[in-house]
């Protein structure tokens, strides 16, 4: 039946592809974001294949998903630990792993990419997958900062390409920014919007403009926090306390930067700086560059702006 559906879909011209009901999902990248998205998609009954470059990374990703599910069931099944364990096993059965993105994509309604924030690497992956994925398959990127139009440009399915920008930690954060390029079809956009809702998230519609909505506003705030500190106008600790107690943020800017990952932040700043070199917002951030050069990438490596006892997974 799946084979028949695939063949049928191959016969559609791209403009004839209807709304795709997303059931089988391939997620490329099993890091913080990919693992979180896989967890939420599997929890909501999707069949998920998580792809990364090695089995070791994938093992760590699945362990991370299990750990996060344990936190979820502690609440959800507080009085029924056995039902909680059953729930975890049921969700995990919906997740398979692979180092072969091509064969995973062949079985997918949606290929969602959550790999390093590097345009060329993202473009190369989608270029390869475009050749093997069924005609109806929608491609989407979870990029924080790169134009979806640029990522999609190496494929022949511009109408079936959009942005699905999740927030970290994915199981807790309710927002998804659904991004349409000028070429994204209405059917594709509606399918992505609907998928976000089925995941239990609240989607907002975004144009393919730098930073979409949240990061357009968040990045200047985070940059100004670090500049303020570099000018000697406040310690990291005081800046974080101030923004938590004075502005009601759950994390201060330095805590949040460590949580996002300083390598990812550096990719974002360097990428925007290359595009807009005279913009003072993107001038090099010495503290950030030094920490990344030392491999101190934030909470995920145990040290960033702060030191952590327990690594997050
Ligand atoms: C300064 C540097 C300058 C650099 C400038 C450049 C800037 C460029 C930046 C670009 C950023 C790009 C990132 C991006 O694209 C978009 C993003 O994702 S931005 C990040 C958005 N996320 C946030 O803002 C997170 C804010 N924090 C929180 O909401 C909370 O702190 C958090 C929910 C993470 C944790 O809550 P907290 O109360 O602090 O801690 P607890 O550990 O007690 O957790 C509370 C509650 O939540 C459960 N939980 C937490 N994490 C998970 C998980 N992963 N899985 C399952 N459950 C989880 C936990 O179990 C607790 O449950 P209880 O029942 O309440 O005990
Ligand atoms: N960290 C955050 O708070 C957020 C990040 N994002 C975006 O999500 C994407 C991923 O970010 P994170 O999960 O934080 O990064 P991460 O560093 O935790 O994970 C990236 C994963 O991609 C894998 N990978 C790299 N190249 C690959 C390839 N060619 N094929 C398959 N897997 C590959 C890596 O092995 C790693 O496991 C980035 O585009 C980032 O901008 C979006 C929202 C929030």
TrEMBL record:
Write down the top EC class of this protein.
Answer: oxidoreductase
Name the GO cellular-component terms.
Answer: mitochondrial matrix
Site (Important for catalytic activity): residue numbering on this chain: 165
Which keywords belong to this entry? Answer: Acetylation, Differentiation, Fatty acid metabolism, Hydroxylation, Lipid metabolism, Mitochondrion, NAD, Oxidoreductase, Spermatogenesis, Transit peptide
| EC number from the UniProt entry | 1.1.1.35
Pathway, per record: Lipid metabolism; fatty acid beta-oxidation
State a single Gene Ontology molecular function. (3S)-3-hydroxyacyl-CoA dehydrogenase (NAD+) activity
Task: Name the domain of life.
Answer: Eukaryota
What residue ranges are annotated as transmembrane? Answer: none
Check the record and name the InterPro entries matching this protein: 3-OHacyl-CoA_DH, 3-OHacyl-CoA_DH_CS, 3-OHacyl-CoA_DH_NAD-bd, 3HC_DH_C, 6-PGluconate_DH-like_C_sf, 6PGD_dom2, Mito_3-hydroxyacyl-CoA_DH, NAD(P)-bd_dom_sf
Q: How does it assemble?
A: Homodimer. Interacts with GLUD1; this interaction inhibits the activation of glutamate dehydrogenase 1 (GLUD1).
| Similarity-based family | Belongs to the 3-hydroxyacyl-CoA dehydrogenase family.
Designated name of the protein: Hydroxyacyl-coenzyme A dehydrogenase, mitochondrial
**Lineage of the native species?**
Eukaryota, Metazoa, Chordata, Craniata, Vertebrata
Gene that produces this protein: hadh
